[in-house]
Amino acid sequence: MASTYQLSAFTIPLSEEQCAITTAAIKVIPELLGRMSKMPGISTDEIKAIAVDEMSACSNGLTESQLASAVSLCVDHVAAHPDTDEVDFYSFNSSQDDDGLLIHHDESIHVTAAANFTQSVMIAFGLSEPVVIEWANTCSSARSGDFGGGAVVVTQISTEMVSAWSWSEHRIAPVSYTHLRAH
Q: What are the tens digits of pLDDT across the range 40-97?
């Protein structure tokens, strides 16, 4: 059986301090989502307490203020996306580069989750410049329809996505309609 992948690497323009805060949040959000999926009806205060516990375990030298910012980022993100219970969607890798925080995944990234998280980071830090996430769809076998890609433009208030598939479907529809009318 063939495996499909979404490959992407993109940078969120953050300061060194913002990178540290966001990296800590990336480590905690999957655990937080996993616990929340087992606790229906959990309150925001309970989410915050879990985030504080998890964050303290992996704080890597964050100051108290930075830790509070990372917890806030986690809680705000999870609150904005309460129906997301797929922990693996948020298994990102990150590293600081010259332009900010490079987000990627070694095998396959969930593009919508990456866009949602990026939007939460932009809101948390007041980033006004859009972030562009490009991705490539690949497959371990040569199969029609399993290759392509797309892009997402993320701002604080919206995420706009276009894929090669949706673009081509949009382009084909008017051609087919015109062809049918000619007969």
A: 777 777 777 777 777 776 656 777 777 778 778 777 777 676 665 555 666 788 999 9
List pLDDT tens digits, range 5-37: 788 899 999 999 899 888 888 887 777 777 777
pLDDT of residue 183: 45
Q: What H or E segment, with its residue span, contains residue 135?
A: strand 131-139
Give kind and range of the element (H or E) at residue 116.
Answer: helix 111-125
Query: Confidence class of residue 119 from pLDDT cuts 50, 70 and 90?
Result: very high
Please answer whether residues 74 and 51 qualify as being in contact, where contact means their C-beta atoms are separated by less than 8 angstroms: yes
109 and 98 Cβ atoms separated by less than 8 Å: no
**Contact call for residues 105 and 53 (beta carbons, < 8 A):** no
Give me the long-range contacts of 123-131 (CB less than 8 A, separation at least 24). 123/76, 123/156, 124/69, 124/72, 124/73, 124/76, 125/14, 125/18, 126/156, 127/12, 127/13, 127/14, 127/156, 128/156, 129/13, 130/154, 130/155, 131/10, 131/11, 131/12, 131/13
Q: What is the mean pLDDT of the chain?
A: 80
Q: Which run of H or E residues covers position 16?
A: helix 16-37
